[in-house]
Specification:
alpha+beta; 2 domains; 8-stranded mixed sheet
Amino acid sequence: MKQTAGMREGDIAQIKVGLQDVEPAIWRRLEVPAEIKLARLHVALQGAMGWQDYHLHAFRIGDVEYGLPDPDYEPMGVPLKDDRRATLRSLVSVGESFVYECDFGDGWEHEILVEAVLAPRPRTRYPRVVGGARACPPEDVGGTPGYEGFLEAVADPRHAEHDSMLEWAGGSFDPEAFDIDAANRELDIRFR
């Protein structure tokens, strides 16, 4: 097991999560217990980013992938290690980054950087979102190329798919919107 400089039991890890291959950047900063299991970190990431947890996921840390073991999905010909047993603190150190992928069909990859270790604050619930920018793409939009096409359609009222895309997205979509309070309410629902 890896020695994790600076993270002890009871510490809080500050992480920055950035959605890859999308410009301008879509990101969130979270504070999570250093002892969080990767399976629970997945739940926190889904809530913080605005994903609905419809799809499979995996964490890639070094040459190892973690997720729910599935004989039908074996990256690199090797079964996933069980993310319900692995903790953030046991696998990464401050300053290190790793990859979180959700929705293997759309291929959304997120880079996660462990920015700092903090002492827990009294009367503070974790995990929590402490920063971020921009709305997450709608679920099942088709990855980066699909999202780019979606943004073109919703931005142009004359686009042939403008109305259908807006209807599909629930009536409106503002790619610049990020509501930290709504993200934390979602985490409260998923973790309380």
